Amino acid sequence: MKKILAIALILSCITSTIAQKNLNDYKYVIVPYKYDFVNEKDKYQLNSLSKFLFNKYGFEAIMEDGDFPEDLIKNRCLGLRSDVLKEKGMFVTKLKVQLKNCDGDIIFTTKIGSTREKQYKTAYTLALRGAFEDFESVKYSYKPNETILSRATTNGTHESSIEEIEKLKEEINTLKEKKESAVIEKLKEEVVEQPIENKNDVKKVTEKSDENVLYAQKVSYGYQLVDKTPKVVMILLETSKTDVFLVKDTNALVYKEGGFWYLSKNDGSKPTLETLNIKF
To answer: Cα(263)–Cα(247) distance, rounded to whole angstroms?
Structure first.
């Protein structure tokens, strides 16, 4: 029995040493802004907590949507991409942390952190902290690896690539603005063709009770309009025009004119126009 325990201990030490050597080859850890098992960016602050814990155990962690250091921009292979995976469990929350290199190879996977806590935020936090305890025994310390360093692009190639990317971005933005302008003008022409209610009538409709009021909530791509339920009624996509929005997944336009908000639709048969009571 003692012999078996001794062998197990030796194997554990060897595994830990190999893992340490592999991890020490990498200078950065890139933390995603969202994990697949949750449906929101930094849900329960799990991604922020991951970055904090990586830094706690000696790594230099960077958020995926943050500013990358110059050497990481030139050579993505200097960084490991982290992920948190959820394991199945009956009444138990189980999480493990995985690190992959720039080729998608798994470099390190932690033990599973688990808890029977019922509240999601507390459960995920406890399980994640439990998984991260594995990094304490690794005792990470960056030691440059010549093979990985050699994968960096040359300055000339890097600068050239940046210039090409910027040119492509400009061309895409120009085409996008032209397309938006064409769509907006077409929809506005259709609106002009149909008779619009008397402005006084429009004002009366707008000044009715707040039962039909829609509240605009800022999101990354524009605004989402929600009612009092609250239920998302529609999503407005920003355009290059002030106070003019495209309605997502619909051939419609929301715009402001004369102090009032209008929704213009075209279902292919005839255009319609209605007023909206939007509060920003």
So the answer is: 9
- Per-residue model confidence as pLDDT tens digits over 108-127: 999 999 999 999 999 999 99
Summary mean pLDDT of the chain: 80
Q: Is 22 helix (H, G, I), strand (E, B) or coil?
A: helix
Cα–Cα distance measured from residue 63 to residue 10, given in angstroms and rounded to the nearest whole number: 36
- Kind and range of the H or E run holding 214: strand 214-219
d(CA 88, CA 92): 8
- Rounded to whole angstroms, the Cα distance separating 198 from 221 reads 34
pTM over 0.85: no
Reported as a single tens digit per residue, the pLDDT across 227-242 is 888 788 899 998 888 8
Q: What share of the chain is helix, strand, coil (3-state, %, to 5)?
A: 40, 25, 30
